# Entry
Amino acid sequence: MFHHDAAASHLSTALNAAGFAAGWERSVLVGEVAELDFPELEPGWETGSIGWAEPQAQQALDLAARTGPHRVPLATWYTMHSIPYWDVEVRVLTHRGTVIAACWLENVSDTAYAVIGGLTSARPGLLAQPPLRRFWPPPKQFLVADADGQVRDVLLATGFREITTVRSRHWTPPGEPEAIPPARHSLYNDESRQIARRCEARVGFDYDSGRGRYRAPVDSRRWFYGLLGGRDDPMIAAAESLIERGLRACVRTGEWVYEYRPYLNGWEFDPHRVGGPGKPSWPGSAIADDEFQFLTTADARLGTFGHYAEQTLVVYGEDLLAQVADDLDRLLGGGTWTFDSQTSHPA
# Structure
């Protein structure tokens, strides 16, 4: 809660009544990237970005766990499989090959801001030449941090300005915390590649043809959505809700659903732990906007395939069809359209 916010006192009262405990209070600092003056590193010292698979990542995680509290713990980004250089930028400071300190920057999507999620020590050299290129667009013009002690002092010395203070509030719900988050990014590893091959084979999808050829399986239906008004059309949202409800009804407890898009970032999630009150939002989408995409179980026995060029939604798997086909017929019509260079006809 920000000190300058007139509603903060009322919110404090409400949070206290709900069982939240007051935590740390720190300064909120903002710096214009073009005006920040970071010190140059001395010989033998280096700073650079790392990915989760690199050996230095574990050293950064260990340093982060021993310091803080941080705005968002580095371990949280790691557990979420957050994509380095896209959601979060992890940097390490090394001296003759040994990791001395780490920091991470968080992307605030669709804004000119990035946030310093954590600094394991007061070493501003970690932020020299902030690696914000992958956070475009738009270009990042400002860095934001909440800090106290030596970290606050060194950031102020490099050109940050204090604009207010922020107070944290914490609440620990009863029971054991979940060890695995309900949704996380899919890593491009052997498991995800096997799932990708299964769902492509399920619908005979040939990405490398350049035309997105596919063969809808026997236990499938297709619907055309090209006459709707795009992602903001209420009927698109209604269709997505139908697929969400159908997958949740068909997918076994503890089974995951995978959003797969060839050569792009995807998601894996537990449909029973997302998409409801107090839960993370449903991360996958069935209807393709500008990329081919699948929502599928790991064994590809049921799911959806969105063909953005045809603007066709394919639903496969008898169980899932039984859940959604009648409602999709009422919403999108009872057939789809296929097109070639000479004619168009309902399928």
In short: The mean pLDDT is 86. DSSP finds seven helices and 16 strands in the chain. Residues 60 and 286 are 37 Å apart (CA to CA). The first strand starts at residue 21 and ends at 32.
